[in-house]
Amino acid sequence: MKKTTIIAALITALILSSSLQSMAQEQRRDSDLKKEIFLGEAMLSGQEDIAEGEAQFQYPKGERAARQNDIKLIMPRLAKDIESQLFKKNNKFWPTWNPSKFQILLVSQYYDFAYLLNNQNKDVDKIGTRIEYSARTINDVKIKVNPFGMTKINGIDTYYYNIDIMHQMGMSYEEIYEMHLSTLIHEAVHLLAQKDVKTADQIEIGTAQRGVSYPIDIKSRYFRNETHVNLTAALRAKNRKEKISFVRKALYFHQAYLNINSENEGHNEYDYAEGMAVYVHTAAIAQIKNPSFTEKQIQQVTGKNLMNIVEYSGYGNELGNKVLYWGKEYYTIGAMAFAMAVQLGHQDIYNSKTSPLTFLLKKYKILETAPSLSVKKDVYAYYMNMEKNIIDRKTEIDRVLNHKDNILIKLELSRHSEGSITILNDNILFNYKGQKASFEIREQEITFGDHRIKITEKGLVSLMPELPETGLSAGAVIIPDGDSTGGGIELIMGTLIIPVNKNDVTVSDGKISVQTNGLVLFDVKYERNGKIYTLVKE
Questions:
Q1: How far apart are CA 470 and CA 118, in angstroms?
Q2: Strand-pair partners of 84
Q3: For residue 143, how far is the Cα from the chain centroid?
Q4: Higher pLDDT pick, 241 / 323
Q5: In this structure, what DSSP letter does residue 28 have?
């Protein structure tokens, strides 16, 4: 898999991770978390006297110790459930998929432990066995700095999952466990089950495109919300006839969505990649929690759970619980459409390799239906407010990038470095000086030769030129809190251009150093072209 694919796929995983965190109604207090984690430990150890053990349990001090404790409890359970469910040939959550030939590596540097699940090298151990390692014996750099991806272990292609990078604090034991299980299976679908599908590979590279464009195509967002409303009604319906009726209404609005904007046809494929992945990880959890359920019961529980984890818009708007969260449309609508196809008996959708809505359009005719005036009113009000916010932010971005006291530091990521990216907010697309761009918030630590560069910024805009090998695009510009010049970063899927106040820069003997709240680098070699300083790997 191309490095660009892996880098962009990080964004998907972390968006998913953020989505799963928000399923919790509120962050637990420390005392509640102590109890939840202890109960998980007692459950794993088979301890019966919970009250006595709880009184003796002391939650570790410090975040690193807390993470070690969480991961120490979660890893054995995660390994056990993956072995018993994902590698089981006749699973109920995806009957046509048999991943029995895949190896999975779970690794934690905090815990200094790694599991190789489902060993496939008979010279190392019996086929299908679990092998335990010290994490210190794993020297593959990308496993240490990326949350997940593909590598080779004992000469065999292996999907790896770094539990440390994906780990989140502030949730109960069960919520943390479900977050890891969901993310691990979700990305396994992309990297293992969809690996032979060209569109899925491109979709991973094009992750940064999954935003709402400015000027906002509000009609498309409205049709998507109507599609979602009718898919929800279909999942709630009690009988097949009623379910089909709502599916056909959803297809009416989906067809309108495809017709209103030529770009929507391409975005339609995101419903396939993410919809399938969300459906499968939700169904897998349903099976793990209900091992005695039939395949049909698993399907019903999955549909119900998909309705419960839907996310709606934010921005502190009073419409926050009414308008579908645009950044997760593909996950939500795709998964619901996939669930409806399965519930209606169309098992061939598992191997269709197309959008579940396109799949349903081939099975059913659309049913013209009256629009919902309340949905239309809410969607238009919400996105008109968003457009105002975008205009305000774009004005600030232009000011920072063009400030006379800023120099530009250029770093080509794709050729020189690897590292994890944390996306902390929405992704809004717009046109910036004739190029595609997007607003984001992110944090990133980069390995650059023998150097480490740390970026901790509060606001981000991505420039997104096309990638020649895919025809897709991705990238970024960060605008942090700070002094009058603002700082900032422009990331082009492998190229960072970082505006920095010249007073914060030290240049000596052909090397540059910067230490601000938003950017830290020391004695890195550079080449200068006007106000642009390009960092060079030694």
A1: 33
A2: none
A3: 18
A4: 241
A5: P
Q: Does 16 have pLDDT greater than 60?
A: no
Residue 72 to residue 66: CA distance in whole angstroms:
10
Give the span between the Cα atoms of 497 and 156, in whole angstroms: 38
Question: How many alpha carbons fall within 13 Å on the CB side of residue 464?
Answer: 27
**What distance lies between CA 17 and its chain's CA centroid?**
6
Distance CA(326)–CA(379), nearest Å, equals 11
Peptide bond into 215 cis (omega under 30): yes
Question: Is the pLDDT assigned to residue 448 strictly greater than 90?
Answer: no
| pLDDT, tens only, 140-151 | 888 887 888 889
Task: Give SS3 for 452.
Answer: strand
Q: Cα–Cα distance between 437 and 425 in angstroms, integer?
A: 15
Taking the CB of residue 362, how many other CB atoms lie within 10 A of it? Answer: 9
* 3-class DSSP assignment, residue 469: coil
Q: Is 467 left (phi over 0), alpha (psi -120 to 50) or beta?
A: beta
- Residue 341 in tokens: 């196809």
Give the C-alpha separation, 56 to 38, whole Å.
10
Kindly state the tokens that stand for 307.
């309705």
Q: Kindly calculate the radius of gyration of the chain based on its CA atoms and give it in whole angstroms.
A: 24
What CA–CA distance (Å, rounded) separates 488 from 490?
A: 7
Residues 6+ apart with CB under 8 A from 438: 208, 209, 211, 427, 428, 429, 430, 461, 462, 464, 475, 476
Task: Check if the beta carbon of residue 186 is closer than 8 Å to that of residue 402.
Answer: no
Kindly compute the dihedral angle of the four CA atoms of residues 80, 82, 87, 93, in this order, to the nearest 10 degrees. 130
What are the φ and ψ backbone dihedral angles of 512, each rounded to 5 degrees? -125, 145
Instruction: Tell me the per-residue pLDDT of 300-342, one tens digit each, with 9 for 90 and over.
Output: 999 999 988 777 765 444 544 678 877 788 899 999 999 999 9
Closest CA to 117 of 127, 107, 131, 137: 131
Residue type, 536: V
- Cβ neighbors of 337 (< 8 A, separation 6 or more) are 231, 250, 271, 275, 355, 356, 357, 359, 360
**What is the chain's length?**
538
Which residues have C-beta within 8 Å of that of residue 43, sequence separation ≥ 6? none
CA atoms of 475 and 207, how far apart (whole Å): 10
C-beta separation of 287 from 293 below 8 A: yes
Q: What is the pTM of this model?
A: 0.71
Find the DSSP H helices in 402-452: 413-416
